[in-house]
Specification:
This protein is α+β, with helices and mostly antiparallel strands. Helix content is 44%, strand content 14%. It has helices spanning 3-11, 26-36, 56-65, 71-74, 91-100, 106-119, 125-149, 162-168; strands at residues 48-53, 77-84, 153-157, 175-184. Strands 1-2-4-3 form a four-stranded antiparallel sheet, with helices on both faces. Helix 5 (91-100) runs antiparallel to helix 6. It is globular and about 55 Å long. It starts with a helix and ends in a 21-residue tail after the last strand.
């Protein structure tokens, strides 16, 4: 691991205090999300969606849904990461794009599409939600490291009313909220944490 990447990982903290005057342009948020979605996903079907909260009035409602946590309003933006439990419906655009880029030939594309259509639509919804949650989590973590590399602080938030979120922000029932990520300029240091000894968490067999 490069020294730079190791430093990013070790210095990243979940921040709760942000400079309320700091702003991030939409274009930069899109760039970071585009890089974040280079994370691996199930059969490359990319089961994630994002809602980016910038508007002050919308964030007032979001803060209430997130149990009145102030960073919802003081951060420069809040990214809601959603999972797509019907990610198999992405099969056409995903494999068309790979074919157009020259990464797969027509025969391979046909096999991939066929396998997807024979498998994922018939998997239990809970299994599909688990896959989407895992894959969206990979993209979320990648986003936080990308943000750190650009000089921004982030904080993942699982503490919010997911049913009220979906109702208030009219989330299609195909999608489900997973985590909120605040992003902005740190206004007070995040408290440091420790980890249990890795030897207690690893078994070699």
């Amino acid at each position: 691991m490069s020294e730079h990447l190791s430093k990013l990982i070790r210095e990243r903290r979940s921040v709760r205090k942000y400079d309320p005057n700091a702003q991030i342009e939409k274009e930069e948020l899109l760039e970071m999300l585009e890089e974040a979605t280079l994370a691996p996903s199930t059969s490359n079907l990319q089961p994630w969606e994002f809602i980016v909260f910038l508007d002050a009035e919308e964030r007032k409602d979001l803060r209430a849904i997130a149990y009145d946590q102030e960073q919802i309003e003081t951060a420069s933006a809040v990214i809601a990461v959603l999972g797509d439990k019907e990610f198999y419906k992405n099969v056409g655009p995903v494999y068309d794009s790979m074919s157009e880029a020259g990464y797969i030939d027509d025969a391979s594309k046909e096999v991939l599409v066929s396998n997807t259509n024979k498998t994922y639509p018939y998997a239990p919804e809970e299994a599909r939600k688990n896959m989407a949650t895992f894959d969206a989590g990979l993209a979320a973590m990648q986003f936080m490291l990308i943000a750190k590399n650009r000089g921004y602080a982030t904080g993942p938030m699982g503490g919010f009313d997911k049913a009220k979120f979906s109702e208030r922000f009219q989330v299609d029932e195909r999608y489900f909220p997973i985590v909120l990520i605040t992003i902005g300029k740190e206004n007070a240091p995040a408290y440091p944490t420790t980890r249990l000894p890795i030897e207690n968490k690893v078994k070699f067999i």
